[in-house]
Design a protein that fits this description.
mainly alpha, 18 helices, 0% strand, globular
Length: 369
């Protein structure tokens, strides 16, 4: 049973940002991922109950945090449609259940470090395919028509390039941590290669938020003693790739001329694909009902475009209290991650275990997006 749960959790995390694969509908893949998540979670919670190890994290990452998020989302919930309300509650619940499941898995003795290694290897391999599809045309896969992805390298295996890039960024620090702490050269080069492929994949698809997160993670982690030469290697490869594909990268990163606008007339809003102006309109809309918001899904920049800034979206939908709660969570996350990171650097990782706080905080990396 332990092996099955380990396999399901590893694969589920590894394909977390994946929304499609060739030969399978997006809805079927979503159902498979849900079954994997549900089966692994049920197995871990069952084991925790029968071994008297059923416990939640303390503080804001435990049930208290879940209750606070629901409480401060009440304005958004009561004013939303039934579908939007159910979708928001599902996201809250699944995020906390995943966090608590990892917490219990650690206390049950699962090798979380190995689990994250497997998941990072899966995602890194998918990024290799994305980069290969741009350079060689192989594999020549294209996403489902509803995702508007004529080529694999347009948005990776995600529904949109932003979501794909953000999801990939979660695995960059996991791989680079292995580069720092493994003594065997081969065990350093493989995760370094996969981390490099994640970053190149983000450059190819043009996911700016995820790319920025990966670059920051690379600088922070590889600036430590023993990692600087690898940081230099990544930098040299990145500069070579950028210099060889200047026009393409400028276009993908929305810095180049996408709409035939002369360079002298381009504005920050043009570069942001209209998100800057849309965010300002949304912010003005939020001020009309600052305390309770306007309900989940209440504001769209256009008929098909949602607010891209997380903080403004929360402010519009639920009012000021929800983003303030998230801010408290992130400040605690940053503090605890900093403390755990110092301990992590000093401690030996060779025993195959890792401080539980570090693992728990790492799973919340995506909250920044």
């Amino acid at each position: 049973m332990n092996r099955m749960i380990f396999f399901l959790m590893s694969v589920f995390m590894g394909i977390g940002p994946v929304y499609w694969v060739p030969g399978m509908s997006a809805s079927m893949l979503a159902m498979i991922k849900f079954i994997m998540f549900g089966t692994a979670t049920a197995g871990i919670w069952y084991q925790a109950i029968i071994t008297n190890r059923f416990a939640f994290p303390k503080g804001i990452f435990g049930p208290l945090g879940y209750v606070l998020l629901i409480l401060f989302s009440i304005g958004g919930i009561l004013q939303a449609t039934l579908f939007e309300m159910a979708y928001a509650l599902k996201n809250y619940s699944q995020s906390f259940i995943m966090l608590w499941t990892i917490f219990m898995a650690y206390h049950l003795g699962y090798d979380l470090l190995k689990m994250f290694r497997v998941s990072a290897a899966i995602l890194g391999t998918l990024c290799v395919l994305v980069v290969s599809s741009y350079y060689t045309g192989f594999p020549g896969w294209s996403g489902p028509s509803e995702f508007i992805a004529p080529h694999l390298w347009v948005s990776g295996f995600g529904a949109m390039r932003t979501g794909w890039s953000n999801g990939c960024a979660f695995f960059t620090p996991l791989l680079l941590g292995l580069v720092i702490h493994n003594r065997n050269l081969l065990y350093k080069l493989v995760p370094l290669f996969l981390a490099g492929m994640i970053i190149m994949n983000q450059l190819v698809v043009g996911g700016r938020n995820g790319l920025l997160a990966s670059l920051i993670a690379s600088i922070v982690l590889l600036s430590q003693r023993g990692g600087r030469k690898y940081l230099l290697l990544i930098a040299l490869v990145g500069v070579y790739f950028a210099a060889s594909n200047v026009d393409f990268l400028l276009l993908q990163l929305r810095i180049g001329d996408q709409q035939n606008i002369p360079g002298s007339e381009r504005t920050l809003d043009d570069i942001s694909a209209g998100r800057l102006e849309g965010g300002m309109h949304a912010f003005e809309y939020a001020l009309n009902n600052l305390w309770y918001g306007h309900g989940f899904g209440a504001f769209k920049i256009s008929a098909t475009t949602q607010i891209h800034n997380l903080w403004i979206r929360l402010l519009v939908e639920c009012g000021i209290l929800l983003p303030l709660t998230f801010l408290v969570m992130i400040l605690k996350l940053l503090y605890r991650s900093y403390v755990s990171f110092k301990v992590y650097l000093k401690a030996s990782i060779r025993v195959g275990k890792v401080d539980p706080e570090l693992i728990l905080e790492a799973t919340k990396h995506r909250v920044f997006f």
